[in-house]
Specification:
2 copies of one chain form a homodimer. Chain A is of the alpha+beta class and about 350 residues long. Helices cover about 45% and strands about 20% of the residues of chain A. Chain A has 13 helices and 10 strands. The longest helix of chain A has 17 residues. Chain A binds a DNA duplex (30 and 30 nucleotides) through helix 3.
Chain lengths: ~350, ~350
DNA sequence: GTTAGCACTCTAAACAGATGAGTGCTAACA
DNA sequence: TGTTAGCACTCATCTGTTTAGAGTGCTAAC
């Protein structure tokens, strides 16, 4: 069986109507809705075909049809490109006084959730490819050092750690100088054994302490919870009856609260960098069981300086894919390198 | 009407049975449950009295009775002290490698939620009374300074801020020295205009920069979101049918996600330091409308060094007050100054 | 003061039609 | 050959009714 243009139109109409109403859509509705000017009987014949092809199903006899995962997949892959709707301006994208990427992302999650009416998640960037900008060791207590690390994007990390040997103030000063000279501009990934050896040698008598320091630096850069995930708008799922059925809602909210699965989900999307970076997962395609009634659209953002992470929007299968993809696309465009600018403005306001 | 001992026993029995089952409890049940060996008819008479006193109600005619807010209040205030049950050991209180109070509290929230089966929230400590331990200014970019502030408890805060004047390395060094000398051991609250003037004078030519720096320090100490609130176990509310009724659940989860109301709620509790610091809010007593079907038990923790905040446990009105209060009491005992010890261990493991 | 007995109330569950949306099929039509 | 009108059929949903059971309040007896 082949999907001719008329069938495609009908499928699109079903998907779009179901998206709005959440109710199975019948042949009469389609007959009136489309500009095909066909009777409901004809539509019925076509719908029978579409059902045979596995693109739509009836929840029960004598009910209208709803799209299957396969139907959505077809829709997303082929039909959406055609009539790309102009995306409404994103409101409330007021990002004020942000001197930390984390806050920026949190705000972004909130704004996206408010704009789309779906749940959103954003993973914090991984800092492995981010360049070191500044390292500062200071003594806090006797035997306790504070390491402050600033990386590109003015992201600040710090740890307190113990050192075995005592250091004089002068030694600390020269160690600081040494570290900054040797490491400045390098990313964590680029710091290899050779460089470490180099620094140890240069540190002379206190070479032993270097590895301790570098460990602490690595520790500081690695975000606290391995990878941070910010979620927002979890309660939006209550807006969709098919999701707020007790068990589903519970599992979903749990998943969103837990955030562990989410990181996993998004990370897997990060690897395959196909297309324009926006990916759509529909129902069973998702690796997380709790989400089998959902669709997730993910995108990879790049704040510049190697700060890359991803954004996911979680909604019912009947989510407005066009709007979501469009919004995400738009946000990505805005985000692309935009952080630095915002940062600059933010800092100016702050003083 | 007076509440004699028998009535009290019956009220207690009703509350405890309702706590377990969540169903209105009838006279027969009480008759069998208590050791009063009274017939259901007698119990009925007593229950009619209790109802008249406003301590219990029938959801509808021909249903059993459930406690009112007033009934719970009486129970919590008077009857709980008597037979304080021995609290089960708190499991999973594994606090590993924590060098930040924030993480510690997050873990604590999780553990409490898992142990009680209620939702929990913990507010981060306010640092206004915490003593400054160490301040470090460093130049990151031209015209951009990084201020790192360490307070008691090894809590580290930082900001990047712009300065108008250029500073030489020597000037920066002496400014650092000056700040540490003048401010060490003081809390934010203790830094008054006199001290600021003092420092400005001592800074000489660069006196103007001092206020900028102090602003930044204050900014750094103030936690990012004014006051941080960590929540956990929000989905536990689905375990209680009377809360998971669509609208209530939605509002509640929203409230927990939003966290703003929570801070308010807990903050108000912080002021009145009555009793042993543990307070119980029942239903309408709560200032947050979304929580009118809930009870909240709050406690104030003190990690030492002025780091004080509070823990709240949110559950249905029929929550196990004894267990919750007991658990909270226990956690408070463990927490009392325990953070420092944990911190020390954590740091040792880390190196 | 306590208890047994009984009539009464009200909820929840179970059941039975009635309704109507929607289908599939067939036959007629262009 | 594709399209349409008509019709019988299905089934979820709604509505009203019945039934069972839990629990009460009251009264009268102990």
């Amino acid at each position: 069986m082949e999907l001719d243009e008329r069938k495609a139109k009908i499928l699109t109409a079903i998907i779009q109507n179901y998206q709005e109403t959440g109710e199975p859509v019948g042949s009469r509705t389609i007959s009136k809705l489309t500009d095909l000017s066909l009777s409901s009987a004809t539509i019925r014949n076509e719908m029978a075909d579409l059902e045979e092809m596995g693109l739509i199903v009836q929840p029960h006899t004598s009910a209208g049809r709803i799209p299957t995962d396969k139907g959505y997949r077809l829709y997303v892959d082929q039909m959406m490109a055609d009539n790309r709707r102009e995306v409404a301006e994103i409101k409330d994208l007021v990002v004020e006084r942000v001197d930390r990427v984390e806050l920026y992302l949190k705000q972004m999650a909130k704004v996206l959730a408010a704009n789309t009416n779906y749940a959103t998640m954003i993973t914090g960037p991984s800092y492995h490819d981010t360049k070191l900008k500044f390292i500062q060791l200071s003594r806090v207590d006797a035997g306790k050092l504070l390491a402050v690390v600033v990386v590109e994007g003015n992201v600040i990390r710090n740890t307190i750690f113990d050192v075995d040997e005592g250091l004089t103030d002068e030694e600390l000063l020269s160690l600081n100088l040494l570290l900054n000279t040797k490491l400045n501009g390098l990313s964590m990934r680029e710091i290899n054994l050779g460089i470490i050896k180099d620094i140890e040698a240069a540190a002379g008598a206190h070479g032993a302490i270097v590895s301790q320091v570098l460990d602490a630096v690595a520790d500081a850069i690695r975000t606290d919870d391995d990878m941070q995930v910010y979620t927002s708008g979890a309660t939006n799922i209550f807006k969709y009856p098919e999701l707020s059925g007790s068990q589903t809602a519970q599992d979903l909210i749990s998943t969103l609260e837990d955030k562990k699965d989410l990181g996993e989900l998004v990370r897997s999307g990060l690897k395959e960098e196909a297309g324009e970076g926006i990916q759509v997962y529909i129902g069973e395609e998702l690796p997380v069981a709790a989400m089998k009634d959902c669709s997730v659209v993910t995108a990879t953002y790049d704040l510049g300086d190697g700060m890359r992470g991803s954004i996911g929007i979680i909604g019912p299968k009947r989510m407005d894919y066009q709007k979501v993809v469009g919004t995400l696309q738009k946000v990505m465009d805005q985000l692309d390198g935009a952080y630095k600018k915002t940062l600059a403005i933010g800092n100016k306001e702050q003083t």
